[in-house]
Design brief:
It is a single chain. 57% of the residues lie in helices and 6% in strands. It has 166 residues and is mainly α. Strands 1-2 form a two-stranded antiparallel sheet. 28% of the residues are buried. The mean pLDDT is 95.
Length: 166
């Protein structure tokens, strides 16, 4: 498998896992989504917003027009789950579309990400790997938080199959 195909598969799997997680969270009441929980962020809605805002940061950087700290203003851009879900799906489509266009040149391209004290510069392939790892990490936290709700957490650990019948 080429690096391009691998990263595209990761983008599809990322969108699929987000889809499953968002569909499960949609079954929760607004109170359950916002309720205080144990995790890096204090609620499901807060954690889902963090996943989205970091997506905005990295995807915009990969696209060549990094929005920088504006991605986090406000820290929780969507208090309504339906708005958050819509925007996460849009970000997932952007990421898949970006990964469809990857070639050796775009994978090696230097990506600039403004930080508080410096501009981080990384090759695009490493930014993508970090983005996927970030998503997995925080989806896992939401998955654990769901264990304390009225809705069972969805299966997220199966890789997106290449054969729809699998």
């Amino acid at each position: 498998m080429t690096p391009q195909r691998y990263l595209l598969a990761q983008a599809y799997n990322n969108a699929w896992a987000n889809h499953r997680l968002l569909n499960t969270c949609a079954l929760l009441s607004a109170a359950e989504i916002a309720a205080p929980r144990t995790g890096f962020f204090p609620s499901i809605i807060h954690t889902l917003n963090h996943i989205l805002t970091v997506d905005w940061l990295y995807i915009s950087a990969l696209e060549g027009n990094c929005i920088g700290s504006a991605a986090f203003e406000p820290e929780i851009p969507f208090t309504l789950f339906s708005d958050l879900a819509r925007e996460q799906r849009a970000a997932d489509r952007r990421l898949v579309d970006h990964c469809r266009q990857l070639d050796n040149e775009t994978l090696a391209a230097r990506v600039s990400i403004p930080r508080a004290t410096h501009v981080q510069v990384e090759p695009a392939d490493r930014v993508l790997l970090h983005l996927f790892q970030h998503q997995i990490h925080h989806r896992g936290q939401v998955h654990a938080m769901l264990s304390g709700t009225s809705v069972a957490p969805p299966q997220l650990d199966e890789f997106f199959p290449s054969d729809p019948a699998e």
